[in-house]
Amino acid sequence: MELNLLSGLLLLALLCLALLPFAIPGVLEVLLSLAIAAFVSAALMWFGWLPDETSLVLLSLAMLTALSAVLLWKPLRKLQKTGIRLQEDSAISDFVGTELVLTEQAHKDSDSHIQFCGLEWRVRLDPEETALAVDPGQTVVISSAMVGLLLVKSKTS
Q1: Is 149 helix (H, G, I), strand (E, B) or coil?
Q2: For the ranges 7-11, 90-94, 153-157, which has the lowest average pLDDT?
Q3: pTM of this structure
Q4: 23, 42, 54, 82: which is deepest, by most CB within 10 A?
């Protein structure tokens, strides 16, 4: 079986899409941009608008990857930052419901720190919390956990 440029571009795009769920932020945007560029380059070749020359196909792939990365950068960053609730990691979701005594003031809009389970964690007030800040020495309950970050609520007695 002979692998031509069109087939190679389609395989590249599919491989990039298949790797997306396993990519870390930063690499994810590059893979998505490369997949889009490969699909667009393949479509341009399919319709005959891009000659079947390796150097032109690679140039097209590079330029379209850069263009799609620039166009997708802000929307993807905004999408990542708009999630109010954090995704819970199953390995640390057992922390939810655990009570802690704050050593620093906790806020909704900035992180503070606490020693918990032998590690230093960032702590932020849960967006559903009515208070804007909770003072040190107060007891809080973990409402959501993510690697390195705990969302907490005031303990209601």
Answers
A1: strand
A2: 90-94
A3: 0.52
A4: 42
